[in-house]
Amino acid sequence: MTELGRVIPLRFDMSEMVRRSVATLYSHLVTRPTGQALRMGIEAQIAELGTMCLTVLDFSEVAVLDYSCADEVVAKLIKRFQREDRPVEAYFMARGIENRHQEAIDVVLGRQGLAITAELADGRVTLLGEASASELAAWNGLDALGRAAPEQVAEATRSPQAEINRALESLARRRVVARVDIPRTYFALRPLAAGSLSRS
């Protein structure tokens, strides 16, 4: 039996947060100070939780997202929890991603070598930002399996074992898949967000 333990889901409605934080009726994430205020609020809640969590950034009701806000809210948040001094283990998903959001997120993450699991408005799941061909293969294989040992991902993707090992390690370090070590098992984030993989 492979246990990930209890992964706490944290969902942030970005539209509601911006209205509450900057006292506006509009769901526009268009300035760097706005993005910084939202990110600091999210970081504080993750740290306060004090345990492993899956943070879902819901952009469904956000009308406008510019590059500076995407950088503050998404890129800097991911970078904070890649650092060795991160307060807890946190993984990240974006949800409700429309075309009006996708370009800004994809560009700012790609420029910084970052990535995020994103659920599009039509229900499809993709990886936004930068990923190598082997990382994309491993991520797609794991998403189809839900959770798997590295050898299972290699078999499913018909890829060399060493290549998949490196790709999965990179994806876990970049916070787009979760990992447990005994035995070594990787978890796709979409099923975790639905609460279906917390235990076997």
Describe this structure in words.
There is one protein chain. The chain is α/β, with parallel strands linked by helices and 200 residues long. It has a single domain (8-193), classed as Winged helix-like DNA-binding domain superfamily/Winged helix DNA-binding domain (Arc Repressor Mutant, subunit A), CATH 1.10.10.10. The protein contains 8 helices and 10 strands. It has a 5-stranded mixed β-sheet, sandwiched between helices. Helix 4 links the parallel strand 5 (90-97) and strand 6. Helix 5 (133-145) packs across helix 6. The longest helix has 18 residues, at 32-49. Residues 196-200 have low confidence and may be disordered.
Short précis:
The chain is of the alpha/beta class. The protein contains eight helices and ten strands.
Task: Give me the secondary-structure topology.
Elements: E1 8-13, H1 14-22, E2 28-29, H2 32-49, E3 53-58, E4 64-65, H3 67-80, E5 90-97, H4 99-111, E6 115-120, E7 125-129, H5 133-145, E8 147-148, H6 150-157, H7 161-173, E9 177-181, E10 184-188, H8 189-193
Helix pairs in contact: 1-2, 2-3, 3-4, 5-6, 5-7, 6-7
